[in-house]
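Here's what a typical entry looks like (histidine kinase):
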Amino acid sequence: MGGKDPGETGEGVGSLRPLPLSVQARLTLATAVLSLIVCTAIGIALDLLIRDRLRQDVFADTQRATTEWIGSMTATPSPPVTTSEVDLLQLVDAHGHVVVASRAASGRPPISTLRPASDDRIQHGVACADGECVMFTATRPSPQEERLLWGGAAHVVYAGLVEPPLLGTRRLELLLASGVLAVSALLTWIAAFLIGRTLRPVEAMRARMAEITVTDLSKRVPEPPGDDAVAQLARTANKTLGRLEEAVEQQRNFSSMVSHELRTPLTGLRARLEEALTYPDVDPRAALRDALSTADRFQAIIEEMLSLARVRTAAPGHREPVRLGTLVGEEVASRRAGLLIRVDAEEDVEVLGNRVQLGEVLTNLLVNAQRHARTVVEVRVERRDGQAVVSVRDDGAGVAPADRERVFEPFVRLAEGRRRDPEGSGLGLAISRAIARAHQGDLGIEDSPQGPRFVLRLPLPPRPPT
């Protein structure tokens, strides 16, 4: 009383769900079904072929026996002497009486009542009686032979053979069915072995991937030998893990540097505001001006951080043909009068890229060069080694070899840079390199006779086929 039927709670048999099969189990099952279907079709074809071939052989033997006996007959035929497996031979007259027969067929009724017509003198058949079936050939002598031997009376010669066991029973089908099952089972076992061996590296990769966490991205999946799809998958997964580890490490370093760079001005801002609240003699308007200046610095740093993040994580955006010589001329023309900027640009050096982003790179390089130059900045645009190369050199103090990579890290500012531009964020060169690499190029510092030489390399677009 008060109980519920299993069907009402969804807990009965109807709510049971089959367990999901693994990939290996599904592939093995599919192989088993497919091999069973194919082997069954082959078995049926073999059964029909063997039965047809056995019938043809038996009828060929019985037909040969009738024609040989007819060829040796006289007006008073004698019982034939059988020398082959065909031992049932009878000569039957027009009234259906056995005139003469072989030893094995004597005393038996006519093998069959089938009587071939004169225009179709050889016919085959199967006659069954008393649980025994006989395959026979009924041959009627030619009209000339009937006139010579029996005065034109129609006679029929029968030659028969007890139906072979393979034709009279289901033994052949049982043998073929056993073979089909055995071959299907063998193929399924081989397929299961090969599938398991093929998927074993995938399982090893899955197990290793399950061990990888955000706190430890140094592990890599095992790479099987060879160059098949699984090996390529493992190598691709390891490359992806490498890029992910690098990105996470960059993010950690970036977060650490951001917190450091923002903490210092934030601490100064808080101290300035607390001072204005604590000491009445502090000019509040001056404190607010200082706070506003610090807020502007915050805003500039945050905007540059967002710009760097966008460049690192997104494609360059809309690409178009950009002539670097023209772009350099526009950026140089927009600079304030002051230091001399010399431009040496080859014509028609063109790349595919985002014009705004490439312009930002050139702006950062020119600002940096003007900040450190003494008298002159030199800009050169050329083709070199199959690339478009833009070099910006100033005649300043230069960058030590040990610092040539550090200056491209976010918030890294050398002592000279801090002295010349105390309010700088140290993100300009990092953003410039990120933009260059997003365009499949690079940005670095190379040797020069005097001062640093920043070199931007970008790939040239493929030439159209001629």
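The radius of gyration is 50 Å.

More examples are in the samples folder.
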